[in-house]
Design brief:
The chain contains 4 helices and no strands. The chain has helices spanning 3-59, 64-82, 88-101, 103-108.
Length: 109
């Protein structure tokens, strides 16, 4: 019998038993990292869109369309952030943001 050949085959099988799980773990880690990075990017984009809508509302505080847009984008931001619906506390925070953006117009009346 050729023991050198069987020893070489055993070495390859043993190496495969080590390499495959390591590759699986590394691949899984890469997928998780990318998912987190994508979530953070979506959250940042939603935050910027919400803040931009508040700026537009400050520039035109009597516009119902701008108010609705700020509320809609705020809800998108908070749902992106939490991965669930918007809580009552978050709705209150958005209302405070919108009222603050419109405060100058209310003070003039």
């Amino acid at each position: 019998m050729n023991t050198d050949a069987s020893n070489g085959m055993a070495c390859l099988v043993g190496l495969g038993c080590f390499v495959l799980p390591v590759l699986f773990i590394v691949g899984f880690a890469v997928v998780v990292f990318r998912m987190r990075a994508n979530k953070q990017r979506r959250e940042q984009e939603a935050w910027r869109a919400y803040q931009d809508s508040l700026v537009r509302l400050r520039e035109n505080p009597r516009s119902a369309a701008h108010r609705e847009e700020a509320l809609r984008l705020g809800r998108i931001y908070y749902s992106t952030r939490t991965g669930a619906g918007v809580s009552a506390a978050q709705e209150l925070g958005m209302a405070n943001d919108i009222n603050a953006a419109c405060a100058h117009a209310q003070a003039i009346e």
